[in-house]
Design brief:
heterotrimer, A alpha/beta (about 350), B alpha/beta (about 325), C alpha/beta (about 375), A: about 350 residues, alpha/beta, Rossmann fold, two-stranded antiparallel sheet, 12 helices, B: about 325 residues, 2 domains, seven-stranded mixed β-sheet, five-stranded mixed β-sheet, about 20% strand
């Protein structure tokens, strides 16, 4: 699709629905943590347009290589809410078997790679995935998601450089949300934009308003088309703002002013899209209310289901270290089971 | 003196050192304005300013590499790595550079950096906010490895680390950052390296632990006490240098040894302790040396409590060792 | 140096241009530069030969990099520090590193300041601000940022120079070092000696950007690409860069394009990968021949003076080598020193056991 084309109605409306769903799930996620019902949460509040705009611009077979703040992308990919909330609860239904902190999920079926907590390590993985796709002749792109802070990491440097050298179909999607925990973007690096870092690696960098759904969508569609035409990677800097804390363990009042946050409140991405849709007559006030109600219901039912599931079976602790358990680990597992039986260990 | 927490001990040590010596600088992610994600550096930025308390970009190799360069110029940098799990991008700087500078330059360029990092499990941190990988550093000659378990040790050992002349990996057991409390002497009072601390005396079994496993082991010793087993609990405090004399003296007395750590068993620091005990105390041993450790799996999230050595599991280990004849 | 019709590319500076670029003492600088570049060239020939004869274990030649090394050394002040890559030993010698000590280092004998602990060409020279290097590529770049930060914090002047090759621009410590130095406004001069080859990998496969100096922009830092085989250009560029750094204007990156006229190291066989034509191009950029031609055109040195210089230099090497060849190996005791300031158990015990097994001679 070319730059000039408008984003179709169907995509815009779907985008709105997903953004509302994302924010609803996100707000509940934070509350569940505050109530002690889940252990941790990483909110993305404020970044809905960047995430859903990018998510919907990708195709089903494209590889998503996320960090831990991408619920909007996950929902755009079609990952069910229940699957996500099972992960937040780390219960027996969790595909990841309760092994990771909340928000560090990933699902092979959705080509959505599991996230880790170290910042930036996923960026170079995307280059590897893309190299494999090219080798196999698959017409797909790989998309690492990362923040402004990750541009300082060593794997950003390696990922960008490798993708440039091998001319890989990678869309480096940087959500510049202004803050790496307490460090503001301007103290992260002296470059005038993050997008221009691409020049150091010999490929395109584009800065886009990350709170404008259709702008993000179009930039990603365009970069994707170029990548698949053999024109190499693009670094996309989506400028947005982290409205909430870095995570539920963070207190942003220690390092940033309320006025800054308020000024971004006025640029709320959902509000922005809502107004566009109303202006075009693509949605009604009643329709919006319905979207919001549906989102609440869907989230509630995912939570209800996740809360009912028991914790993972204790012995799953010893699974998946290797494909098969080596002898010493098998021994540890037997001892462990014995201690469980004797009540020395209590799940 | 009033009781303070372990993390306040860390904070006090930094304040004392920075007030005393203008060459002491602190750097790391979120250590300045935010005072550190655990608040270990709280107040430093305000008191000592941004020239001496650097909020760095997100780059661990950058933080440690910067610190080494500062140290070569004679500053005394104290770098913070936000979680030990995030230290690996800096592994090259630590093991190839900091650990080898003095040796490779014939003593001309010592690289005295202190690398503080919270480590260990027990806070529901999953795979990447929980690990104990002290053995990666204890097996690298040229590094000192220090792990406090009380506020007084946190302060006294950190002060020793800052005014030491070698690179020091200073591992802070974040699980007991706020639960370990106690009195701490005012001012620049240092705890020397290489001196283990006897937490509880006992004649039947020696229990060697460090970090968050010290209070756990003490509790376990109290549990077995009720069964008539008198365990001696020793806090190693510094893994390098190691107080081998204290270890030998205790095992020669009790003839039995239990080693407790959070790290996985295989190739863990307990293996070194066990080998040392068997090399030096074999004829005093009345039972095999036993290790109570994390399992040989990555660190789990939901099942964390089953993974970490619990009081009961340690108590069972002590009991088993005491009853072997 | 040049064979057949391959003459060196001329350095077409007029006397007034030289005056502008280097100031009134330009003649003395050119003579001094020539002498040191000749020194470097003869040193490489001599020691690569010694390695081939099995008399030293390894050698990393810097033939082709002489103008950069000497030009940089002459642009710096005594209080400056240098974090070298693999090919900056000549720079240290120009700054005053003791030649005899360096030759002891190449032999790895007991008089080596680093006590024979490192491979040859990894010297340490604290007295001239030349930092001991590791063999890992790029690690020094971020350390230089810290060094520069400390110099600025202390406010006693001095800048730090980080040297590295084209390959090192791909390392994580390049990325961190450039970013940190820029964010904290450190007085660091980043010099990329782009000799176009990282062992067998050409710079075109190292990164998709055509000019390495452009990488500076990613860090909000000025970057300049220069001909690193042009002594005049190197010296004038680095002098003005140093001035800017001293004024607290933040770090600068200079990409100096040079040619690696010898193998990567004595362990490397470049005939396996160098394309035809590279060496011809390299010879045209021979920095020594280019400066010599300029000097000849300006009548700086007579053939007799040049010959005398060569002889003096060869004599220095002969004397230093003779002394090193009779120096004792490092004492076994030195194996156990300097791991930590004060040795700790178990090393103390390992030392005692070693000594006992050897008959008990340690002090």
């Amino acid at each position: 699709m070319s730059e000039a084309t408008d984003v179709p109605k169907e995509i815009m409306v779907r985008g709105f629905r997903l953004m509302v769903l994302g924010r609803t799930a996100d707000e509940r996620g934070v509350n569940l943590q505050r109530q002690g019902r889940i252990g941790f949460y990483v909110p993305m509040n404020g970044q809905e347009a960047a995430q859903v705009g990018c998510g919907l611009a990708l195709e089903e077979k494209d590889w998503i290589v996320p960090a831990y703040r991408e619920i909007g992308v996950a929902l755009s990919r079609g990952i069910p809410l229940k699957t996500l909330f099972d992960q937040f609860y780390g219960n027996s239904s969790d595909v990841l078997k309760g092994r990771q902190m909340p928000c560090h999920y990933g699902y092979r079926d959705y080509r959505y790679v599991t996230a880790s907590s170290p910042v930036g390590t996923q960026i170079i993985l995307a280059a590897g995935l893309a190299q494999a796709s090219v080798y196999r002749g698959e017409k797909v792109v790989s998309v690492p998601f990362f923040g402004d802070g990750a541009t300082s990491s060593s794997d950003f440097h390696a990922g960008m450089n490798f993708a440039g050298v091998y001319n890989l179909p990678v869309l480096f999607f940087c959500q510049n949300n202004g803050w790496a925990i307490s460090l503001p973007r301007e103290k992260q690096t002296r470059s005038s934009s993050l997008a221009e870092k691409a020049e150091a690696y010999g490929f395109r960098g584009v800065q886009v308003d990350g709170n404008d759904f259709s702008a993000v969508y179009k930039v990603v569609r365009d970069a994707r088309a170029q990548a698949l035409a053999g024109k190499g990677p693009t670094l996309i800097e989506a400028v947005t703002f982290r409205m909430g804390p870095h995570s539920t363990s963070d207190d942003p009042t220690r390092y940033r002013k309320q006025e800054t946050v308020a000024s971004w409140k006025a640029k709320d991405p959902i509000e922005h899209l809502r107004e566009q849709l109303l202006a075009k007559g693509w949605i009604t006030e009643e329709g919006i209310e319905q979207v919001q109600e549906e989102a609440k219901r869907e989230v509630q039912s995912a939570i209800d289901a996740a809360e009912k599931a028991p914790p993972p079976e204790p012995t799953t602790l010893f699974d998946d270290v290797f494909r098969d358990r080596p002898k010493l680990l098998e021994e540890q597992r037997s001892e462990f089971m014995e201690l469980l039986k004797e009540g020395v260990l209590r799940p | 003196m009033t009781d303070i927490t372990l993390i306040q001990g860390v904070n006090q040590a930094l304040k004392v050192a920075m007030a005393k010596d203008p060459d002491v600088v602190v750097l790391g992610e979120d250590v300045g304005v935010n005072g550190g994600v655990f608040r270990a550096t709280d107040g430093l930025y305000k008191e000592f300013g941004e020239k001496r308390v650097l909020d760095t970009p997100l780059s661990e190799n950058g933080i440690i590499g910067m610190a080494i360069g500062m140290a070569l110029q004679g500053l005394k940098p104290v770098a913070e790595i936000q979680f030990m799990d995030f230290i690996y991008p800096a592994f090259d700087q630590i093991v190839s550079e900091a650990a080898k500078f003095r040796y490779r330059s014939g003593g001309e360029f010592p690289a005295h950096v202190v690398i503080r990092t919270p480590y260990g499990g027990g806070i529901k941190g999953g795979l990447y906010h929980s690990q104990s990988t002290e053995q990666l550093f204890t097996s690298t000659p040229g590094l000192k490895v220090v792990i406090p378990s009380t506020p007084a040790d946190a302060k006294g050992l950190l002060l020793s680390a800052i005014f030491d002349e070698d690179p020091v990996i200073f591992l802070e057991p974040k699980r007991i950052y706020r639960t370990s409390t106690g009195e701490v002497p005012e001012g620049d009072v240092r705890v020397p390296f290489g001196k283990a601390r006897t937490v509880k005396e006992g004649a039947d079994v020696s229990v060697f632990a460090y970090g968050a496993m010290v209070p756990q082991s003490l509790q376990a010793a109290n549990v077995v006490e009720k069964m008539g087993i008198h365990a001696e609990v020793i806090d190693l405090r510094t893994l390098v240098p190691l107080d081998v004399d204290a270890i030998v003296a205790s095992v020669e007395k009790t003839g039995r040894a239990v080693i407790v750590h959070e790290a996985p068993k295989f190739s863990g620091f307990g293996a070194e302790l066990s080998a040392t005990i068997s090399e030096r105390c074999l004829y005093s041993l009345k039972a095999p040396v036993l290790r109570v450790t994390g399992y040989d799996t990555p660190f789990p999230y939901a099942l964390e409590n089953l993974y970490l050595p619990s009081v009961d599991r340690i108590a069972r280990g002590i009991e088993r060792t005491a009853s072997t004849s | 140096m040049a064979e057949g019709s391959d003459g060196p590319l001329p350095l077409p500076y007029s006397e007034s241009e030289l005056q502008d670029a280097l100031g009134s003492e330009w003649k003395a600088l050119l003579t001094q530069g020539y002498r040191w570049m000749l020194f470097g060239r003869l040193m490489d020939n001599r020691f690569l030969g010694l390695q081939r004869q099995g008399r030293i274990g390894f050698y990393g030649p810097a033939t082709g990099h002489e103008a950069l090394n000497v030009g940089c050394a002459l642009a710096l002040a005594p209080e400056d520090w240098v974090f070298p890559g693999l090919r900056e030993q000549l720079l240290a010698l120009v700054r005053g590193m003791n030649l005899q000590g360096y030759v002891h280092h190449l032999f790895g004998d007991g008089m080596d300041p680093s006590l024979g602990r490192q491979m040859p060409c990894h010297p340490t020279a604290a007295s001239v601000g030349y930092v001991s290097m590791a063999s890992t590529v790029g690690t020094q770049i971020v350390q230089a940022a810290g060094s520069g930060y400390a110099q600025a914090l202390r406010g006693k002047g001095g800048i730090t120079v980080a040297f590295f090759g084209d390959g090192a621009t791909s390392t994580s410590d390049f990325h961190a070092g450039m970013n940190m130095a820029s964010v904290f406004n450190c007085p660091v001069l980043f010099i990329c000696a782009n000799n176009q080859w990282a062992i067998s990998v050409p710079v075109s496969k190292q990164t998709a950007v055509t000019e390495l100096a452009k990488k500076a922009k990613a860090y909000g830092m000025p970057g300049e690409r220069i001909d690193g085989t042009d002594f005049v250009r190197v010296l004038s560029t680095l002098r003005s860069a140093r001035k800017q750094l001293s004024a607290g204007k933040g770090p600068v990156m200079v990409e100096a394009v040079v040619y690696r006229m010898n193998p990567h190291s004595s362990s490397d066989d470049p005939t396996r990968y160098l394309p035809p034509g590279y060496l011809r191009e390299a010879r045209a950029h021979d920095p020594l021949a280019r400066l010599e031609a300029l000097g000849d055109r300006l009548g700086l040195l007579t053939p007799e003076e040049k010959e005398r210089m060569r002889k003096e230099i060869e004599d220095e090497f002969r004397k230093a080598i003779a002394e090193a060849e009779v120096a004792p190996p490092p004492s076994p005791d030195s194996l156990f020193r300097d791991t930590l300031k004060e040795s700790v158990w178990p090393l103390t015990e390992e030392r005692d056991t070693f000594d006992r097994d050897q008959g008990g001679h340690f002090p």
